[in-house]
Amino acid sequence: MNTYALTAYESNGEKILDETISAPNDSKAKEQGEARLAELNMQEKTHRLTSPKGQLLLFHR
Predict the structure, then answer these.
(1) Which Pfam families does the UniProt record give (predicted)?
(2) Residue 3 contacts by C-beta under 8 Å, 6 or more apart in sequence?
C-alpha cells in the first residue's frame, strides 16, 4: 500500500482538509480521494491529491 496526501483549502488559503489515503495504486487513490471530497461536499473547493512520488493526481482550483 502507498500513502497519498489529500488537502483542501478555502478561497482565503485556509487549509480545511489534510488527510492521508492508503491505496495500492494511483488509480484507486484517485477514486478514494474523489469519494472523500464528495462525502465532505468539498468537490468545488481548491484541492489536490499527491502521490508518494510527488505526482499530482487530482487538482481543482
Answers:
(1) YhzD (PF14120)
(2) 20, 21, 22, 52
For 12-55, write each residue's pLDDT tens digit: 999 999 999 999 999 999 999 999 999 999 999 999 999 999 99
Instruction: Classify domain 2-60 by CATH architecture.
Output: Roll (3.10)
C-alpha 22/C-alpha 32 separation (Å) is: 9
Q: Which residues contact 13 (CB under 8 A, 6 or more apart)?
A: none
| pTM for the whole structure | 0.92
Rounded Cα distance, 26 and 41, in Å: 22
Contact partners, residue 45, CB within 8 Å, separation at least 6? 8, 9, 10, 16, 17, 37, 60
